[in-house]
Design the sequence.
């Protein structure tokens, strides 16, 4: 891996498995994959067989993967819950940077989830970030645009609707709301990350061999998808768009499909015992 890519790519193995499967399984919740193939693919990113198998076991425990036995062979299948999470991710990732730049309506969510449901609380926090929410204070989150439908689905999925409230409305002009939202999100840090992404992936080869194309495409997606957690897509009439976002979005939408065919061939070959 080049120094440039190492700078922006530092995945946890469980997250990397979901990135790989989300990019290469069709249909996601009906296709099984060989455990040995997944272990081998994770090895290409520097993970030992032991670390890879631990990651797969933990994904099963999180109800994101399901084990399927075929004689002595172990395969895995994406669970319905994981398929829904990946579909939500696709909408956010591939729609990033395409909004019209205005947001008359904002969404506020607050929650008081009991300590005995801390796993659900942690999952809620991660998925709120993926929907563009930022933390105002403990238990209170803010997002541009009307996110009430997505939030209702999320709260029901996690079983915490009884411990949360949602308000949709329009911010007052006094005090300065633009100044307030710049304190909720790290916008200079976000712009710097977009710049690092463009620098790292600007010169991808057009004719990469399948193993190289696979590695590049997974790194590209895994790095880009972090912006769905970091970029609130604030309305441009309130706060200027992050520097380098437009270049990053254009680069991703050009390079990701260009690498698809050889990357898919490498993935398919790895899944053959």
Sequence:
């Amino acid at each position: 891996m080049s120094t440039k890519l190492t700078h922006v790519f530092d995945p946890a193995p469980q997250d990397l498995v979901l990135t790989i499967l989300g990019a290469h399984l069709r249909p996601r919740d009906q296709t099984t994959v060989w455990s040995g193939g997944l272990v081998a693919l994770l090895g290409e990113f520097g993970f030992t067989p032991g670390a890879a198998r631990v990651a797969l076991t933990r994904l099963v425990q999180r109800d994101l993967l399901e084990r399927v036995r075929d004689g002595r062979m172990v395969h895995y299948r994406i669970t319905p819950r994981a398929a829904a999470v990946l579909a939500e991710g696709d909408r956010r990732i591939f729609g990033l940077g395409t909004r019209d730049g205005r947001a008359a309506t904002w969404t506020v969510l607050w929650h008081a989830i009991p300590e005995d449901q801390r796993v659900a609380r942690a999952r809620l926090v991660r998925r709120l970030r993926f929907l563009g929410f930022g933390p105002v204070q403990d238990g209170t989150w803010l997002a541009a645009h009307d996110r009430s439908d997505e939030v209702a689905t999320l709260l029901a999925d996690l079983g915490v609707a009884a411990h949360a409230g949602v308000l949709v409305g329009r911010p007052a002009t006094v005090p300065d709301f633009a100044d307030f939202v710049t304190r909720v999100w790290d916008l200079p840090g976000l712009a710097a990350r977009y710049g690092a992404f463009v620098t790292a992936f600007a010169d991808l080869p057009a004719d990469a061999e399948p193993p190289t194309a696979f590695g590049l495409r997974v790194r590209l997606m895994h790095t880009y998808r972090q912006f769905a957690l970091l970029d609130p897509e604030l309305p441009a009439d309130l706060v200027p768009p992050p520097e380098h976002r437009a270049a990053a979005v254009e680069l991703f939408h050009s390079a990701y499909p260009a690498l698809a065919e050889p990357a898919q061939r490498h993935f398919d070959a790895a899944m053959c015992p």
Remarks:
- Confidence is low (pLDDT under 50) at residues 1-7.
- Residues 6 and 271 are 26 Å apart (CA to CA).
- The radius of gyration is 20 Å.
